[in-house]
Design brief:
The chain is of the alpha/beta class. It contains 18 helices and eleven strands.
């Protein structure tokens, strides 16, 4: 999801189910005149998503020229409660023409309930031409393409100060064990916790913790186990998932290693995820785990992102062997539609095109996995690197697992479980609690 450079401010669909009946009759917003934009005019297309504030302004700027050229008015609305409200609006007949889904699992939920329209032919061709099979799969439900990818992020970056590493003679680790050794070395030499960590994200607090687990599951156990986990073919209580929690716990649960600039491990949940940029730039903390979008937070904190700048990043290393290569997790949005009128179809085709990807990326702060994107349009070197990773045939990419899982788990018990876990609940209890969120059918 993309709110304040990918901060996910969501409420789970599980919670929406309780409030849905009460809210359905009184919810306004996109398409509130009658669903699918029918009441808004032939040349007006309503779009609803989580992208807010400056990022929303840039989103609207990215299609402004195209709107004028095609005589279509795209009316965008953002919401911190998108995940709950999109389900309510769909049920109440007040859905927007287009929704930008931060979670493929949520798009799949609505597609299976026949709220979404299958992708039109022009979008299908753009996806075939411009997107990998993996990315196409994230918008496909039961063999039918319902959504096209929009923006993307590469997760698993470890942010650090090149000057500090050079000063102390610290080297970039090439294995997970090497990262653990480096953590111990930094703490021993400085006497301070190396890592700054924040799980805070309003109603979505906990999601940064899921990113840690997902990165380790993929690197430690490989794609087959990762895919089985996402599909609940192996449960959270499986030894492979338990092992990932144990490995991550060697950092996050050790008070010697976190939480630099904020306090002890008890501050992880209450620290907003973006706030870690400040102690990183001021060198109060040495290491931070976050996706490619974090370069924007570093810039906002007064740092420069470059190999010879204040802050740079390396990808979380693998565990060696076949899982140790170019293996990354990432996220992004999928664009789906509740309407199939002519203007909506044109907007969908544009948003799935390389033309739109280059327009938005050239405005700064984001990337896309669209094969037609020119990396030179990216606004920073770390984003250029991330685009190269996404476009490389040698990369093994998997979408954020929690975003692929049913919302009751991915945005529900998984987030809650991460909060409980870092606050001291035993791992086995947490894993059982997360697994209990899976729908029975």
């Amino acid at each position: 999801m993309n709110t304040q450079r990918r901060g996910r401010l969501l409420i789970s669909v599980a919670a929406a189910g309780v409030a849905g009946i009460a809210l359905a009759g009184c919810t306004g917003g996109p398409g509130s005149g009658g669903g699918g934009g029918d009441q808004t005019g032939d040349n007006v297309v309503t779009v609803y998503g989580t992208i807010a504030d400056t990022e929303a302004e840039l989103l609207e700027e990215s299609w402004a020229d195209w709107e004028e050229e095609n005589d279509i008015d795209i009316q965008y609305e953002s919401s911190k409660e998108f995940e709950a409200q999109i389900a309510v609006r769909a049920q109440g007949g007040t859905a927007p023409d287009i929704a930008i889904f931060p979670q493929p699992g949520l798009l799949a939920d609505l597609a299976k309930r026949d709220f979404l329209k299958p992708a039109p032919a022009g979008v299908q061709k753009n996806v075939e031409d411009n997107w990998s099979e993996d990315w196409a799969k994230y918008g496909t439900v039961d063999g039918t393409l319902y959504g096209a990818p929009l923006m993307a992020s590469v997760k698993g970056w470890i942010w650090y100060s090149p000057a500090t590493f050079e000063e102390h003679g610290w080297e970039i680790p090439t294995t997970w064990d090497g990262l653990l050794d480096l953590t111990t070395q930094i703490q021993s030499e400085t006497g301070n916790p190396p890592w700054c960590v924040g799980f805070g994200s309003d109603a979505a607090t906990g999601w940064p913790g899921t990113d840690w687990i997902e990165d380790v599951v993929l690197r430690q156990s490989g794609t087959e186990v990762y895919d089985q986990w996402v599909a609940n073919e192996i449960p959270f209580t499986d030894p492979a998932i338990r092992s990932a929690f144990d490995e991550v716990g060697k950092i996050l649960l050790d008070p010697r290693f976190v939480n630099a600039g904020f306090g002890g491990t008890d501050t992880i949940v209450t620290t907003p995820f973006g706030d870690a940029a400040t102690p990183l730039v001021s060198k109060e903390c040495t290491l931070h785990h976050q996706a490619s979008f974090f370069d924007g937070f570093i810039t906002d904190a007064g740092g420069t992102v470059a190999e010879d700048g204040d802050i740079w990043a390396f990808l979380m290393p693998g565990f060696g062997g076949e899982n140790g290569g170019d293996v990354v997790t990432g996220g992004g949005e999928i664009v789906g539609a509740f309407s199939d009128d002519e203007a909506t179809v044109k907007v969908l085709e544009y948003l799935s095109s390389a033309d739109w990807a280059n327009s938005r990326v050239s405005l700064g702060g984001v990337i896309s996995a669209n094969k037609g994107l020119d990396p030179a349009n990216a606004s920073s070197n770390i984003l250029k690197e991330a685009i190269g990773i996404l476009q490389s045939d040698d990369t093994t990419f998997r979408f954020d697992a929690s975003d692929l899982m049913p919302s009751a788990v991915g945005a529900g018990t998984f987030w809650q479980g991460m909060r409980d876990w870092v606050n001291g609940t035993p791992t086995e209890t947490v894993l059982e609690q997360i697994e209990s969120g899976w729908p029975s059918s």
